Amino acid sequence: MKNFLNGIKNYFKEFGTAVAKGDFWTKSSLLVMGMGYFGRGQIIKGILMTLIEIGVILFTALFSVPYLAKFGTLGTVQREEVFDAATMTKTVNDYDNSLLILLFSVVGMLVLVAFVLLYLNNIKKVYELQVLKEKGKHINSFVEDVKSLFNGNFHITLLTLPSIGILVFTVVPLIFMICVAFTNYDQNHQPPTYLFTWVGLKNFKNLFTNSMTVSFGYAFVRILAWTLIWAVLATFTTYIGGILLAKFINNERTKCKKLWRTLFVVTIAIPQFVTLLLINKMFSDNGIINGLANQWGIVDALKEAGIIAQGQNGIPFLSQPGWAHVMIVLINIWVGVPYQMLIATGILMNIPNDQLESAKIDGATEFQIFWKITMPYMLFITGPSLITSIVSNINNFNVIYLLTNGYTTPNPTMANSQAKEIDLLVTWLFTLTNDYSNFKMASVIGIFVFIVCAGITLIGFTNLIKGDREEEFQ
Amino acid sequence: MKKTIKLIIRHIVLALLALFWLIPIIWLVVTSFSAHKGLATNNFFPKQWSFDNYVQLLTRPDTVCNFPAWFKNSMIIGVACCIISTIFVLMVAYAMSCMRFKARKPLMSFMIILGMFPGVLSMIAVYFVLREMGLTDSLLGLIMIYSAGSGMGYLICKGFFDTIPISLRESAKLEGASEFTIFTRIVIPLSKPIIVYTVINSFLAPWMDFVMARLMIKSKNPADWTVAIGLFNMLQKTLISEYFSVFCAGGVVVAIPISILFVIMQKFYVEGITGGAVKG
Prior knowledge:
The structure holds two protein chains of two kinds.
Chain A: H1 2-21, H2 24-28, H3 35-39, H4 43-69, E1 81-84, E2 89-92, H5 98-134, H6 142-148, H7 154-180, H8 202-207, H9 216-250, H10 257-269, H11 272-282, H12 288-295, H13 298-304, H14 323-349, H15 353-361, H16 366-394, H17 397-403, H18 412-416, H19 425-434, H20 439-463
Antiparallel strand pairs in A: 1-2
Chain B: H1 2-32, H2 52-59, H3 67-98, H4 104-115, H5 119-133, H6 139-148, H7 155-162, H8 166-174, H9 179-190, H10 192-208, H11 211-216, H12 227-234, H13 240-278
């Protein structure tokens, strides 16, 4: 943190010196960005810089400003259609579209921020040129500059395109959605017909409210708890299952190791949505498992034992809370273990053999070897990936959504906030946006998912991975 | 004697486990050969066998099922994504692993923070962005979604690059090689496992994903869909009694090329993950 602040301080200090000590060319770059390059003979670079400056100014003035001006209110003129009986045409007034105002304001602001950074950097570069010139050192020609893009400045060439992709498809949408969390954008305020506007922290308060009309607080606590339980269970069951299976297959006494491994790998190769939908149908209330269970009298036996209600015509594997929770974790073991097995196989093969052998010579049992050598080694290598897989399980959309496609909640309080018992925060978020257009609450939930994930990562990385233990295992 | 029994038990346990894991797959395959189109509830193996589901899938496109078009769409998206994503990942990984510049650490932390926002959250907004670009319901739009942010998945690849000895790069530099030459002539040829891993992963992403595609493709014309959306659509309550077996056939057809790819590439795949993870 301190480094970060110092970095910022130095950044502006350098800028200050550049402005204070700059000569005519450097100072005039404050106005026309290319001037500093013209003065040192870098004509093409100067023209390019000036063109960028003109481009940004034109873009902001002609495109962004109309939107940015309305950013404070997100638009005031609602769409109205007037039907003109004389000409039989509909005329639409010049209405404001809140969505476009917000979206393009975000884009406009990002362009401005990027430009300011470029501008500050430019002055510093120009000042560096001035110093070089004063010392009589060599100044790059344009051709040399281009060449450096493939050598010393190769990272700029490498990172430009991927960064633009990330900016447009990740950063802009995220900032937009974070803004939405502070508006009243929902099914009653959908552009272009209706406007939405800023409401401050009201949505965040809603998330913790539990009253007659709003039950988000009730649902949120339950879904958050289940999300965390699920993430921990899903991660550790598949992790341990994968290691055990890998150990079992790779044991020297097992014949045809490759064949066994391939059998399990086949299950990864079939697209997850196919297998998950299939399993969903297998375990549905009138699916094949229930059909067979009925034939074999298992359903009746369970009814006798009072495990399932009399009125039911099958075992509610995926249609009742409790049952569904357990089934989801079990099915996830089915989904995740082969994958973990593959990873564990690769790592187990790399365990230094001499360690294992010397342990054997010292008379350690297999069990001891597993807990004292294999597991610490595995944990050391996969520790960081365990934390990331907890985070990715919090966001594990596919398993829950595809498996419980068709689940309806018996609890009216949950239903009131469009939630289901087996929902994770992310699937709840998806239902809210996709089925109910409740974008404001979805964004708030999204922000909470981020907070949870960031918290787990921070705690995990500071506590689990203490210091640098690389040597211990090498 | 005791040893043999133990050996047999060990293999029986493995066989049972494998069977347990393969049951859904077996069900998928046998149902795809069923003459009964709907969901069978009382028998695991179909009562009457038929090849018709595959014939229908591949040769008789109708208003619900147009598998040849879906397969073509998914293939185009998969190939395009795999080229773009692989290039992006390699580029970012090289810059982050082998080069040193001021913004390196801040950029890496920034990407970690970005990665912690749930993907579903930004999807809605991505849809609005694409709509403004006029790219919804188009393959180009989907290709952009799947590959544009792929640079963020550079970490495993960076881990792999980190294991390439620095001395190799340094001696090349002494001989006057530029970073570009080092990247293309030294680092890339040494990274076969991780490239294969990235290629497979990015090729498969569009085949496996359906959430994104479902949000982006609102078209009612089946010819515009991808395999995932098309197959998902067949399981709607109104369609399942007519199309369940066809869905299974579709699942098998999709799985065959992917399984072959997987089994062949298994070795590289494992090397890729573990090689990258060791020093991650």
